[in-house]
């Protein structure tokens, strides 16, 4: 389908969504994805394209998910593009390039990017969507160590980094920080696989 027809379809759908979401103060976000490494051929790939769509929908319920990892690959010039899109950005996702690991492990100058975002008093969400640079036992031990730091320093909360098993571990840290005993005390065995039974835990 030609790009113009695709664009028209997206605008029509987002305007219909806006009619439903606006009265409830809910927000959808449009995420441009890079073609070069992960998502070749997707409709939405650049921040200028997402910005144009949000402006055309003209609703507070239609915003940009500015994924810093994807946009570094697609277009670079991050701070300038964030600045140009600023009034339509509802959410940032963070991951370094190459490899989509933690900020600070790749080529992106996250110190300057975060400084710019902070200077504009962003009050939305910065999501940490990336893998872990530490694998296996070392990565698991890092989570155990984080739980001890949490307990010793009376921290206010836990932020999970990554996805999949790493997020499960972060959730376990957050839950165990408020419960007695060891995580094994709450595990159940399903088909030979040990899992945490979250129904036994109350936040």
User: Which structural class matches the secondary elements?
Assistant: alpha/beta
- The secondary-structure element order is HEHEHHEHEHHEE
Physical arrangement of strands within the biggest beta sheet: 1-2-3-4
Oligomer: single chain
- Tally the beta strands: 6
Rg result: 20 Å
Our estimate of the beta-strand percent is: 5-15%
**What is the arithmetic mean of pLDDT?**
82
Instruction: Count the DSSP helices.
Output: 7
Could you give a short account of the major beta sheet? 4 strands, parallel
Distance between the termini: 48 Å
Low-confidence stretches: 189-203
> In percent, how helical is the residue content?
40-55%
Question: Could you give a short description of this structure?
Answer:
This protein is α/β, with parallel strands linked by helices. It has helices spanning 3-21, 47-57, 68-74, 78-85, 110-119, 136-153, 165-176; strands at 28-30, 62-67, 89-94, 125-128, 187-190, 193-196. It is globular, with a radius of gyration of 20 Å.
Question: Can you tag this structure with a few keywords?
Answer:
203 residues; four-stranded parallel β-sheet; alpha/beta; 6 strands; 13% strand; 42% helix; two-stranded antiparallel sheet; disordered C terminus
Please give the structural blueprint.
Elements (H helix, E strand, L loop, with lengths): L2 H19 L6 E3 L16 H11 L4 E6 H7 L3 H8 L3 E6 L15 H10 L5 E4 L7 H18 L11 H12 L10 E4 L2 E4 L7
Parallel strand pairs: 1-2, 2-3, 3-4
Antiparallel strand pairs: 5-6
């Amino acid at each position: 389908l030609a790009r113009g027809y695709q664009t028209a379809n997206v605008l029509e759908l987002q305007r219909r969504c806006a009619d439903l979401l606006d009265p409830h103060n809910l927000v959808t976000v449009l995420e441009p994805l890079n073609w070069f490494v992960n998502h070749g051929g997707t409709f939405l790939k650049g921040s200028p394209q997402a910005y144009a769509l949000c402006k055309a929908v003209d609703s507070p319920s239609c915003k940009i998910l500015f994924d810093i990892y994807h946009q570094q690959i697609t277009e670079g010039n991050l701070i300038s593009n964030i600045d140009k899109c600023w009034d339509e950005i509802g959410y940032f996702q963070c991951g370094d390039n190459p490899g989509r690991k933690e900020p600070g492990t790749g080529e992106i100058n996250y110190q300057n990017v975060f400084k710019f975002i902070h200077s504009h008093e962003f009050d939305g969400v910065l999501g940490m969507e990336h893998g872990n640079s530490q694998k296996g036992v070392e990565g698991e031990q890092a989570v155990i160590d984080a739980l001890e730091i949490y307990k010793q320093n009376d921290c206010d909360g836990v932020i999970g980094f990554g996805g999949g098993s790493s997020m499960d571990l972060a959730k376990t840290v957050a839950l165990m920080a408020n419960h007695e005993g060891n995580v094994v005390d709450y595990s159940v065995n399903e088909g030979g696989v040990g899992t945490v039974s979250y129904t036994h835990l109350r936040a």
